[in-house]
Amino acid sequence: MVWAGICASGKTPLIFVDEGVQINKEVYQRDILEAVVLPWSREHFKNTKWTFQQDSAPTRKAKTTQEWCRAHFPDFITSAEWPPYSPDLNPMDYSIWSILEARVCCRRHQTLESLKQALIEEWGKLSPEVLRPVSENFLKRLRLCQAAKGGHFETD
Question: Which Pfam families does the record match to this protein (predicted)?
């Protein structure tokens, strides 16, 4: 599995989770949030106000994960505020993963290591000119989701 996060002004490092590792709430909190997201966000945002947003996967909406986010991030969208089935609102899902897939899978990879290296290379090439519109599109999608009362919605 690969985990990553973006904002209009940057991106976290890619996090590769070894095959066979179960991403439970403890692993998510320790190996992703605490080990990567927290130090990256402190360095990236410094004293700038920002909001952490994640989807409603079970590890993310777990009570201890919500408490962890509340204690460590200046602001975050709680699982209670997030629609239960909303891949259309996650910028990684509605845009970034498909961009990476198109760039990385246009060539064959004989090994998992080759695929990882290609992902790292293409992730490094994602510029603010790509990230900014994806992040800004979030508000448009949020309004469409609200108009659909949390249900499915169509975009341009």
Answer: DDE_3
Could you tell me which of 11, 7, 1, 9 has the C-alpha nearest to residue 124? Answer: 11
pLDDT average, residue stretch 117-145: 92
Buried b (16+ CB within 10 A) or exposed e, 75-87: ebbebeebbeebe
Domains identified in the chain, total number: 1
The identity of residue 3, as a single letter, is W
Tell me the pLDDT tens digit for each residue of 59-87: 999 999 999 999 999 999 898 888 766 66
User: pLDDT at residue 93 above 90?
Assistant: no
- Mapped onto helix, strand or coil, the DSSP state of residue 11 is strand
| DSSP codes of every residue in 20-60 | T----HHHIIIIIIIIIIHHHHHHHHTTS---B-----HHH
Contact 138, 95 (CB under 8 A): no
**Is the CB of residue 59 less than 8 Å from the CB of residue 26?**
no
